[in-house]
Amino acid sequence: MPDLRVLLLMVLLAGSARAEAACTDAFHRSVESRLGTGDAQGHGPDVGSPEWKSAVEFKLGLRGRADVPRRDSQAWCRYIDERLTECSRSSARRAAGQGPSSSRLRQRALRS
Known about the structure:
- The protein is mainly α.
- It has one domain.
- It contains five helices and no strands.
- It has helices at residues 4-20, 25-35, 50-59, 74-95, 102-111.
- The longest helix has 22 residues, at 74-95.
- Residues 1-21 form the signal peptide.
- Keywords: Signal.
- This is Secreted protein.
């Protein structure tokens, strides 16, 4: 059985690497592909720009919330990644006929 300390160290390092890589161009493109901030003609803010980050917050229902980190920080990217992960998990549960309805999810997001 592996040493628990080694396992914990591996988890911490993996989380740290993910956090540092959060604000890459690849991350921004991934967020854009999941949310789509542009219109049907392909117009929209430049991916990764402050305007784009504002649009991302709007799409997620987060704009103006006090708990959202500054847009120019790694913390913002981690926060957005966490919100998208939560949305994906909730969508998967709903598709499987489990979990709360979309209105209950919105209420939960507003409280968190």
